[in-house]
Design brief:
2 domains; alpha/beta; 5 strands; Rossmann fold
Length: 194
Amino acid sequence: MKIGYGRTSTADQKLDLQIDALEKYGCDQIYSEKKSGAIRNRPELDKMLSSLRSGDEVVIWKLDRMARSLQHLIEIVDIIQSKGAGLVSLQDNINTTTASGKLVFHMFGALAEFERSLISERTKAGLEAAKSRGRKLGRPFGLSKKAEEKSRLVQSYYEEGKLSVTEICDVVGISRRTFYNYLKRREVTLLSES
């Protein structure tokens, strides 16, 4: 069975061009939605993937309609292939049901893996170079000057006892968790819940 999938990024974009191309190709069923490709939670894509059976063809107008990144596209194609189905991209001339289409797609996957390895190597080399120059890596220990001032203010308000914890958080502009972290850091003994 030929199953089409069409997607636009925003509600004001039209799906007509994609739907027409999918119908012309002979899709028996078409799933479509108006969601950003960067969003992983796409109900129609999920429905389409769960409906796949061995021998089905997922037909899309263009690869970027399926996913925004090569990594995400490869993940989706892995799901499609694990169900015994194939992918056809009309504009990109890719058909993973053929030997040459599988080869092209595997080359994409290899290039994506190569890119991830290069990024990892560059990151590690950069960290090593920074270490060798004596730079300390990671988050700096202690509080910034601004946070230190806020922690003193929190301690002062707390020890004064006129404001509740919620009121102190509102006045200082911090969360309750930060409030308690500041007091712990300043070694203030907590009384009862204010």
